[in-house]
Specification:
alpha+beta, globular, about 650 residues, 6-stranded mixed β-sheet, about 20% strand, 7-stranded antiparallel β-sheet, homodimer
């Protein structure tokens, strides 16, 4: 590997340099610190009464020789701890907390003890199946767990500058490098669940050690190759056939083709999007335009053919996967919370390279809708699956809808999405700004402060707004010496008209790929005001999305709306709206922690005229009625009820 | 049991007294005789190259001691032979065929040899599991197989007056009566798959032996009772727990409640409808008004809450079952061919008691649509599942649509629906007419001849029409002595205006419950002409059927129409129609064996204006285009393509 100049036009401002202070996000931020981190720590230690056992800490204690016993849980159980650690680390990056830091350090010591002498680290295999290490890369998640540990390690190092945990991961990765690779005697294997690729790129950036890029590159390039036999067939053969029910459809693992030949987003949506994120990172560091083109092609296929209007991806519950273009059923959407989060991560990487609001628009869409819908307002209920239409009566009965839960589930049924949304919320700061030598990019409109160096001048930037409920954003700058640099602020794709004021004066600013580039000699106290028009928008789908034919969705700013039975009565499908009406928009402080709602007129069959027969040659008369739409992310906080995002258009 | 007066107001004219000679049905009738009966006989004998083995005849040969070996196939494999026998018997009823009669008699001898000394008859258990007889009534289909044998036996007896096969069933039923019953030492069990109930009622009618009603009554009354323990729990306990994966949801078996307490159609749709048919028969013979009321309640729930517009029932592939009211997804309809056939059977029994066209309308709907769609025009392809909307691209990929086959399957993958539709087609004659002392009922408009006795006078009746392609039906009578009686002809529910001519003179006739009662002193050569208006009708669903909101179906006469990609291009969901247009109706002789099509104007997004993005705030312009609808039953005869019954309304 040659360490070249990067492709990226900017770098994210790091988490520890961003303080969030925002009406919309503060409650979520507080949830993480006050509720989610302690709750999950108790869960990992099996101190939650009535919850399914986790045994995660116990597993490590057994592996560390501190306790006797067998491993309990999934092959990827270790990653529950690692994801929690990453959340804690993110939280410590912006707010010191000695107690949690102490807990974290104790955990690091425990992990160190659980690590084998040769660097191997995975309690499932160390304790129960030491002879089966690295024999089933396709399904066994050893590299997946390693990836999450690496991410946690880097986050903790960046938050605290402590290096002990980096020692653990360095030893682990060196071990992996002896086992896997393209040299004589090594296995040419790569993870069935991508994750370590993007983690290795983080580790490289934290340590500047090229060997981590090399390993990432090996995993990515080897994927889906036939040498001449596919590695997953090789290892299947070596272990003497299937050890458990073996999935031979390698598109599920994004291993159906070498990655450079892939053109469509296939398989398990989270695996896919983690992989693509790692590919962007690698393309960036290696200045590999060809690989970047692959990422762009996959991106276009994803967002233009296979993404819900909420930013949810993965439309099939079976295999939690992408299916085919335009197959986006609303009532059987899978749209795993984790997949929306992974889409945020992927978009964030793309925009650093291309500085185009097409990426940040999707990032924002997934963040405010498809990801946030995964957690209840009180942080105690979760959705793994985020359908766009729910009919409890039917969903509770039909087998083909059994993954759709009409109400949120408690924390710890399975531990995949909840910690993932926790680490998203805890790391939100890193998605807001990017910088390069002479530009600061404002991607998201989230109140708070940051600081950076522009043209050698230290600058403090603060952002204030009532976003997403209105489109007025104020940015203030503080700096000692007046300096020329560019504030490149995103003009959201949903916004048809934006005015920009600099120090109170309206200003015409060039817009490049959806970013307004305001280049000034900035002085201390300068302000930028952004006024985004934020009317209710009527959204329609591509005509090939058959589930949405004749239907519209309501959007205002980045927020996708839905109808809930609670506000509109049952049988939401019977309700239709005229789209040429003027909608009422109203902030309701006491509703759902404070939300802006949309009200208007709808039509519905006159209930009194309906006959008790299924089919008729009559046209039932309709009556006019009011409707009320709430933000999609806030649905299912008032008990089990019907919900729909797509509404019939009259 | 006391043999009372029956509830029924009429009795069907028997198959052997009805000759079908009809433009629409002749090709189907010929298919049965010329293609299906010989093909299936070869299949039962494993003489079809490339087909999955059946081994049905071999199983009997082994049980009969004529061959060595083990039983092969399903626990209900024997019923494949019995259903085929019933088809042959129906066919022989109207057309003598010495060769097939010889084959049939040889089969009877084989079955006789396979029957055990005590009367037991089931090759699966006799050969492989003699110690497990009658230990799992819930799942083991011994009574189901017995039921199909009884039906075949009665049909053959009625066709040929031969009694040898009645001897076999008599011995079998006597054996069953020793094992099952409410006396000391007997098992209080009843079949997990109802079927024998209606068969026993047929056997009773053929033999006039009350013991068969008694057994039927026992099975029906015992069903779902707790004595105090549910029988399926009793037998589960007795056999020491689950022998295979045990379904404890007894609604699947219609055994969740005693039948008299059941109010909604639940569980496996074929089981349910066979049971309800047997219940009607029993209620009728016992003049049991209470039981009849249960049947009526179940009927109303079925047809007014849980039936597709095609007469298909059972909206869930999982467990092939009814789900909840108004849950009728079109693209994941299960609507097994057998269930539509069973609905025909149930409706036929109801109308004998109630003389109301609400039953015959459903019978006709299921016959011309949901049942007939199960077989291809050449008789070589079959659907078990009859969806109302098919998107091959998606259905071939999505796991939750995996039972939906976008093209018809060849004969013998599993052998349940093909023989069932064969026996329906072969027995069609029995559904057309009913009689009582002074009335003849014309339920269906199918050309041909029949004869009956009305007020002691032998009458021959012939029917001519081009139905269902037009609504003109001519009925002619032949009788020696002018006699007063009533011709009660159905006025179909789909018909808004009908004219009736007697001997060419228009006549006002009283309509009672959808039957025009023409009472005359009839003479030889008298004619009745029925002129049913048959315009294209726009059908809408009850507003709670969410899948059909904003959509219409097209119907003309009894025929439900659909759009196929073959005629209309792909993306049928993007097509919408104005319902206030005048549709064109045209008979196309060379299309799909001759069908009447519907043509009209539709709107569709202007393909040239569509952008390659998923979501937009634009309204894409639409263009006007023609559409062409074909009868639903005839879809999927021109290769894999999209299809939809429900069309968006503009």
């Amino acid at each position: 590997m040659k360490n070249k100049k990067k492709l990226a036009k900017m770098e994210p401002i790091k988490l520890k340099n961003v303080i969030i202070n925002d009406l919309f996000w503060n409650p979520w931020k507080n949830l993480v610190k006050e509720s989610i981190i302690p709750y999950q720590w108790d869960a990992l230690n099996d101190r939650i009464e009535g919850a399914e056992p986790s045994r995660t800490i116990t597993n490590f204690e057994i592996a560390a020789g501190r306790k006797e016993g067998q491993h309990y849980g999934m092959v990827f159980q270790d990653s529950d701890l690692y994801k929690w650690m990453e959340t804690v680390a993110f939280s410590l990056a912006t707010e010191k907390d000695e107690e949690w830091e102490k807990v974290f350090d104790d955990v690091v010591a425990l992990i160190e003890d659980a690590q084998e002498k040769d660097g191997y680290l995975n309690t499932y295999f160390s304790v129960n199946y030491p002879d089966q290490k690295w024999t089933n890369l396709k399904n066994d998640h050893e590299l997946y767990c390693a990836g999450h540990l690496i991410e946690a390690a880097v986050a903790y190092y960046e938050a605290t500058s402590k290096t002990q945990i980096l020692g653990v991961v360095s030893k682990l990765v060196d071990h992996i490098r002896t086992v896997l690779g393209d040299k004589e005697g090594q296995k040419r294997g790569y993870p069935g669940h991508p994750e370590i690729e993007l983690a290795l790129m983080k580790l490289y950036k934290a340590t500047n050690e090229a060997k981590y890029i090399d390993l990432c590159q090996f995993f990515i390039e080897e994927r889906g190759r036939r040498n001449p036999v596919h590695y997953y067939d090789v290892e299947l053969e070596e272990r003497g056939g299937a050890r458990r029910s073996d999935n031979r459809d390698y598109d599920y693992y994004q291993a159906h083709l070498p990655v450079r030949e892939q053109q469509t987003a296939e398989g398990h949506a989270v695996r896919a999007t983690y992989l693509y994120s790692g590919m962007v990172d690698l393309a960036n560091e290696l200045e590999d335009e060809e690989l970047l083109t692959v990422c762009r092609t996959l991106w276009e296929n994803t967002v233009n053919k296979r993404m819900y209007v909420t930013g949810g991806i993965g439309s099939s519950a079976h295999e939690e996967r992408f299916t085919v273009d335009y197959d986006l059923p609303n009532d059987r959407a899978y749209t795993e919370t984790c997949a929306a989060i992974a889409l945020v991560m992927w978009a964030h990487r793309m925009v650093q390279i291309e500085a185009n609001n097409e990426y940040t628009d999707v990032l924002e869409k997934a963040l405010y809708n498809g990801a946030l819908s995964g957690i209840s307002l009180d942080g105690k209920g979760y959705f793994y699956v985020n359908p766009l239409e729910v009919w409890p009566h039917t969903a509770n009965f039909r087998h083909d809808m059994r993954t759709v839960k009409p109400t949120r589930q408690q924390w710890f049924g399975c531990a995949c999405c909840p910690p993932n949304i926790a680490r998203l919320l805890a790391s939100l700061g890193q998605y807001i700004y990017s910088v390069n030598e002479s530009e600061v990019y404002v991607h998201l409109f989230i109140g708070g402060e940051t600081s950076f160096i522009a043209n050698d001048q230290q600058v403090a930037l603060s952002q204030e707004s009532n976003y997403p409920w209105d489109g007025n954003v104020k940015i203030s700058l503080a700096l000692e010496i007046p300096t020329i640099f560019t504030v490149a602020t995103r003009i959201p794709g949903w916004c048809r008209h934006a005015d920009i004021f600099v120090n109170g004066m309206k200003k015409d600013v060039p817009i490049e790929n959806g970013y307004a580039k305001i280049t000034e000699q900035w002085s201390d106290g300068d302000t930028i005001e952004l006024l985004f028009d934020m009317p209710v928008e009527i959204i329609r789908s591509h005509p090939e999305v058959r589930e949405n034919a004749g239907k519209v969705a309501l959007q205002r700013g980045p927020i996708i709306y839905c109808l809930e039975e609670q506000d509109n009565g049952a049988n939401l499908q019977d309700l239709s709206i005229h789209t040429n009406q003027t909608f009422k928009v109203k902030y309701e402080e006491n509703l759902l922690n404070g939300v802006t709602i949309i009200e208007g007129k709808a039509s519905q069959t006159d209930r009194k005229k309906i006959e008790d027969i299924l089919y008729t040659t009559k046209t039932y008369p309709e009556v006019e009625r009011d409707f009320k739409a709430i933000p999609y992310y806030a649905w299912s906080n008032r008990g089990e009820n019907e919900m729909t995002v797509w509404i019939r258009e009259r």
